[in-house]
Amino acid sequence: MTAQSRALVTEQGAMLLLVVLVGLNLRPFITGPGPVMEMIRTSTGLSYVGVSLITLLPFLLMGVGAFISPQLQARWGTRRGLLTALVLLMLGSALRGIADNGLVLLFTALLCGMGVAFVQSVFPGIIKQQFAGRMAMVTGLYSAMIMGGGAIGAQLTPWLAGTENHWQQALAWLAVPVALAWLCARYVLAEQKGNRPAPGLAKQLLARPRTWQLMLCFGFVNAGYSTMVTWLAPYYQQLGWSATSSAGLVSVMAVAQAVSAVGITLLARGQDRRPWLWLTLLLQLTGFAGLLLLPELAPWLWVAVCGMGLGGNFSMSLVTALDHLPVPQQAGVLTALMQGGGFLLAALGPLAVSLLLESTGTFAAGWLMHLGLVSVVLLTTLRFNPRYYARAMASA
What we know:
By secondary structure, the protein is mainly alpha-helical. Helix content is 80%, strand content 0%. The protein has helices at 3-24, 28-31, 37-44, 48-76, 78-95, 102-130, 135-161, 167-172, 175-188, 201-206, 209-238, 243-267, 274-293, 299-323, 328-360, 364-380, 389-392. Helix 7 packs antiparallel against helix 14 (299-323). The protein is globular.
């Protein structure tokens, strides 16, 4: 192996490490509060709708921020923007250690949401550029790390909170792995001005109906994810489970997501992603139906099946969006916009369920709502034929 080949292998290894570290930090701040939601409600006096904002606000910020991120990336550059975003995520997580009221806690959710919005917007484009020949596989790894990080956050938080309900300190510890990701990004990433997206590209892409179709599908599916991480543990606590046991269900869901996110990108063959998207949607329909109709018969099974559907769909949605355009910078902006509109829709999931919960007293209407949303996505993805990608994105 030549010195140049060794240097390339080292560079690729360092980039893979960055993919792992960044992915692991994009969900713990969202999944962590769910298992200790009752502790938070007791300490802060927030209502069900109020605590749902802990999840809703980051998703809103991730949505709005994804529309702004391409312009910021064009102006600041990828490296500077990513490092700044990770600082916001680290600061938001750390400040939860002193969040003694609902207002401070919601402010930390805003900081974390702003940071993650930029990271999620630019990172798929980085992957397509750095791993052109292995884009789908590395995207699957990235997605798996996101889901795995969610599992870690859900499982660690009640354990760190302990029996004395130290939920603030438990959530603050999640700032430590963000610091490691920041150090890795500072070392690995180099700024390359020529790789910045064109400032007006986002406006061009928003004129394409396909961009909005991708947003709709991504949003309706991730509304299921945001609902699950917010209300799955409280749902089973309402059925008599403990905080630790219900947190285990969130972890099972996240692990299933991680396995599916990697596995489906390894199994998928050919340019037509629709059969794999449909498989993930059918898994979600099965999981949500189980939670609605027979929640205590096989809870681990329903959660795992639903998690496989959610995780597999997340990675395949990113790959599908990246497939639409051959140039990494353009594909990255399209993926950012898909996530932007998608996360705005996803943010409404926990809020809608909380309103249904307060009006009906049960979660049944919420699970029924998600069955309907997944069905809409199933019909919309019929349009995603790769033979017509160029026509759908013409002039982009």
